[in-house]
Amino acid sequence: MRSTPTLRTTLSGFGTALLLAAASPAHADDPAKILKSMTDYLTSQNTLSASFDSDIEIITPELQKIQFASSGQVKLGRPDKLRVRRTGGYADVELVYDGKTLSLYGNDAKSYMQAEMAGTVDQMIGEMQAHSGLGMPGTDLLLTNAFEELMGTATDGKHIGQGVVDGVECEHLAFRTPDTDWQIWIETGAKPVPRKYVITSKTVTGAPQYTLRIRDWKTDAFAEDTFVFKPPAGATRIDINSVAMAEFDELPPGTPTGAKK
């Protein structure tokens, strides 16, 4: 004789079904294919601009996790023009690259530095990451070989499902590499731009994260002087290798080693 389900067992079964539904993507699309559609869209645009908010975490010697928040704007003119402004609690900095000269200006430091660096934005970003010591997470999204750069060391990828970032429906992807786990939320539809990007370091105790939220994507043409750097009145020029480079970082002096990606 079948017993009549009780309210408790009915609710229990309903809860299990909800958990299973939450754990299973609505449709398991190929994460690499979705990522490729994003990188193809970005690299096909001659001009790009966007605003962003970033959070970078550090782990103190006492194993306390601290976040530092910044906001900014980016303007890109392929193949060799870039302007980035970032304002945070410890730095107000601007990077301007015109294909020949790299200029960095620190509003708080009232100083700037310049270096001759003819080439493309890709080459400039590579030089900066290799020699300056400044963290530039998120710039890999701007590269002309962004897909290869992002997937180069990936050992696993998943399409988690859908998500909503700043009111925009997105595809949520998660990838793993030997050193980091990273997630990206890509806007659905004809304009597959990245809306959120999270990098988790697995080689630092406490697994600190870098989070980037991107909005206001535009592909409009820029004014002719967008990528022209003009030192503000009273600004002091310093050597590119000066210790004052610390003024251009998004973390305060004394941040524990290994906190940045």
TrEMBL record:
Taxonomic path: Bacteria, Pseudomonadati, Pseudomonadota, Alphaproteobacteria, Hyphomicrobiales
UniProt key word Cell division: no
Entries under InterPro entries matching the protein: DUF2092 (IPR019207), LolA/LolB/LppX (IPR029046)
Name of the protein in question: DUF2092 domain-containing protein
Sorted UniProt keywords: Signal
Signal sequence, start to end: 1-28
Segments forming a coiled coil: none
